Amino acid sequence: MADLGSVITAIVTPFDEQLRVDDDAFVSLMNHLAANGSDGFVVCGTTGETSTLSDDEQLGLIELAVRERPAGVSIIAGAGSNDTRHAVHLTERSCELGVDAVLSVTPYYNRPSRRGLVQHFNEVARASSVPVILYNIPQRTGTDMPNDLLAELAQIDRVDFVKQANDDNLAPVDGLGIYAGNDGTFARTLDMGEAGGILVASHIVGPQQRRMVDEPENRAEIDASLQDVYETLFMTSNPTCTKAALELLGHRVGGLRLPLLEADERERAAVRAMLERHQLLGQLTA
Q1: What single-letter DSSP state applies at residue 52?
Q2: Is beta strand 159-164 parallel, antiparallel or unpaired with respect to 74-78?
Q3: Rounded mean pLDDT, 38-67
Q4: Contact 247, 14 (CB under 8 A)
Q5: DSSP for 202-214?
Q6: Bridge-partner residues for 178, per DSSP?
Q7: Dist CA 179 CA 171 (whole Å)
Q8: Are the C-beta atoms of residues 241 and 234 closer than 8 Å to each other?
């Protein structure tokens, strides 16, 4: 099973004032995060606002990430869709661009049957030359993949991991490495001896989350200290508050594309208060 890292940041997509993808800001942010705890990146995941990106924008950003990646980090392409043909296309193109793995979400909205899910991921895996990370997030897709189904999917060649965002399902699965899909279960996932987490708070508290991997004896204490970070970043639809926090920290990430909106006055005040509590304002580094 490939080692993709333990602290994987689901990186935001920076936009300029016209809400076009800002390549320079993306590379700058990627370098900053790699210097502050991230082992790798999911590019064009949910946090990257992929649902509002065109295929050209999505594949262009993945290509940029592969080309400009900091030394030693993994690049994981968000390549899922609720249309199997589209997921296959994005998977094939991402592999051609040189990614280390693909993240493939449970098809959303059309809510396929169990047999449909198995066939869908068979087609995705057949199209991939790299490890496939399943993404189970029923609160967004309307479909849960229970652990017995995940164990069945693990029998498919190249299906090696799951990003588990259903906290009730968080448990070992034969044949799959587990990534926490929510920051709040990162410590629990590490305690299980699993791969790590695909995280959002690592944009803000990457060094602390890195310590949770490197200092297991301090993991519970660090996790407890970060609960308000997790709560604040997810007080409204992600990545609204994450982008607000990054802007307050001096990173150029721009606004959000509709139907998401930038943080309002109340949300921005809560983000600023959280950053102040953690003494993070004014600490922008490389």
Answers
A1: G
A2: unpaired
A3: 98
A4: no
A5: HHHHHHHHHHHHH
A6: 162
A7: 11
A8: yes
Indicate whether 286 pLDDT > 70. Answer: no
pLDDT band at 2 (very low <50, low <70, confident <90, very high): confident
Question: End-to-end alpha-carbon separation of the chain, Å?
Answer: 32
- pLDDT digit string (tens) for 234-283? 999 999 999 999 999 999 999 999 999 999 999 999 999 999 999 998 75
Number of domains in the chain: 1
In a domain, 28, yes or no: yes
- Residue 282 inside a domain? The answer is no
229 located within any domain: no
d(CA 7, CA 11): 12
* CATH for 54: 3.20.20.70
Burial 227-255 (b: 16+ CB within 10 A, else e): eebbebbbbbebbbbbbbbbbbbebebbb
Judge whether 22 lies within some domain. Answer: yes
Which residue do the tokens 């490890």 mark? 131
CB contact at 8 A, 133 and 163: yes
Cite the active site residues: 135, 163
Question: Which residues, in sequence order, are bridge partners of residue 161?
Answer: 133, 177
What number of other Cβ atoms are within 10 A of residue 157's Cβ? 10
Strand partners, 164: 136, 180
Contact 29, 12 (CB under 8 A): yes
| Cα 282 off chain centre by | 26
Please tell me the pTM assigned to this model: 0.96
Token pair for 8? 């994987």
Average of per-residue pLDDT values in the chain: 96
